Amino acid sequence: MHDGIHVEQAGLPSATICTDRFVHTGGAMARMWGAPDYPTIYMPHPIENLTREQLRDRAEEIAPRVAAILTGG
Predict the structure, then answer these.
(1) Which residue stretches of the chain have pLDDT < 70?
(2) Among 26, 46, 65, 68, which residue has the fewest nearby CB atoms (within 10 Å)?
């Protein structure tokens, strides 16, 4: 969250992806860094036990949202 917000503030588009376990923490961090409306993509937690194929499926699922954030769509 911190890195994504600072990259955005430097003028470079960024997309932050977290697991849904960090919704409240992510929102608090965004408010703390002065970006309460910072767009964050949340995916189901946990991810550490997923196979490569399952991770790829999740990535493909969120790819349109990442692209929309990065292009301002």
Answers:
(1) none
(2) 46
